Amino acid sequence: MIQSSKDIDVAVFGATGYSGFELVKLLLNHPRVRLGHATSGSNPDANLNQLHPTTLDLPLCSPQSVPLNEIDLAFLCLPHGAGPGRGQEEAARLARAGVRVIDLGGDYRLREIDHYRRWYQTEHAHADLLGSFVYGLSEFHRTRIADATRVANPGCYPTCTALALYPLAEAGWLTEGSIVINAVSGLSGAGRGLKIPSLFVEANENVTPYHPGQVHRHVPEIMQTLRDMSGAEIPSVVFVPHLAPVNRGILATIHVPLSQGPSMSEIREHYAARYEKEPFVHLLAEGATASLKHTCGTNHTAISLHPCEGGLVVVASIDNLLKGAAGQAVQNMNLMFGLPETEGLPC
């Protein structure tokens, strides 16, 4: 952790995607940050207000033109994979130049190279750096993040799921059988590129599951995080994400088998104790149910608990662009530079 009275000079690599644009807005309003450079690989000579409907008059530049010796931290909002302008290459270039990095992409979240090859269907050109990135789930790795120079920001679905299940994992209550995660995401979760399922006519008045079962690349990230939290093997995870006709937000409904487990009162007490001092995680009152409206537009997580025969249903919501991406990245930056964790983040 660095503690300094001076402003933090930052650059955003990939400022024109949804997460990058959200991050730019947060950083421009952060009282301790100076955003000196915002890059675009495809439109390096444009202004941000030419590419987004915004009044922000922010010139863009090429990634190669950023003077690395003038920045304290780089945020990467880039597509995963190898090649110029993609996550693997930029993260490696910046890390090896001694620049602190928070990578919002998926290239450095998984620690095992075989897992990366299998789930991302590509080679990793910088596998030697995999273990050097701290997994940036703020509530779980707070101390490690504070001392880190390289942070891999979690995916949006894994963030929501991990925070929903952290108390159960910590207590050793995820050992009986398959955890079934049904999750809904807003259209911004699919990115800003043109895709047929995201077209208005396809998505409006429709809800579509995609990559159901155990094929989505967030499955190994969820499994890795739950294993780390519990210190034990997790039997299996079934993950069914859905695309919903809303702009933003994630709502996860998770069934956990607990046939020989604790009582509901014990579970509620454990959740309450775990999250009592967390500024961005909230256990809702008994009888309430988490929804997208609890958290959209904020960096918060809402969790509700529901008994069922032989198990427990946990419902959790986050804003996929904030707690699931840009907001958590700023939270991690605050930890790395010794700032109040809530600094510059929407309530």
UniProtKB/TrEMBL annotation:
Pathway: Amino-acid biosynthesis; L-arginine biosynthesis; N(2)-acetyl-L-ornithine from L-glutamate: step 3/4
Keyword Nucleotide-binding: no
Keywords from the named record: Amino-acid biosynthesis, Arginine biosynthesis, Cytoplasm, NADP, Oxidoreductase
Recorded GO MF terms: N-acetyl-gamma-glutamyl-phosphate reductase activity; NAD binding; NADP+ binding
Principal location: cytoplasm
Reaction catalysed by this enzyme: N-acetyl-L-glutamate 5-semialdehyde + phosphate + NADP(+) = N-acetyl-L-glutamyl 5-phosphate + NADPH + H(+)
Gene Ontology terms: biological process: L-arginine biosynthetic process
UniProt EC number: 1.2.1.38
Xref: InterPro entries: AGPR (IPR050085), AGPR_AS (IPR023013), AGPR_dimerisation_dom (IPR058924), AGPR_type-1 (IPR000706), NAD(P)-bd_dom_sf (IPR036291), Semialdehyde_DH_NAD-bd (IPR000534)
First-level EC class: oxidoreductase
PROSITE patterns documented for this protein: ARGC
Localization terms from the record: Cytoplasm
Active site: C156
Domain (Semialdehyde dehydrogenase NAD-binding) ranges: 9-148
GO cellular component: cytoplasm
Protein family per UniProt: Belongs to the NAGSA dehydrogenase family. Type 1 subfamily.
Described purpose of this protein according to its UniProt entry: Catalyzes the NADPH-dependent reduction of N-acetyl-5-glutamyl phosphate to yield N-acetyl-L-glutamate 5-semialdehyde.
Name under which the protein is recorded: N-acetyl-gamma-glutamyl-phosphate reductase
Origin species: Sulfidibacter corallicola
Gene: argC
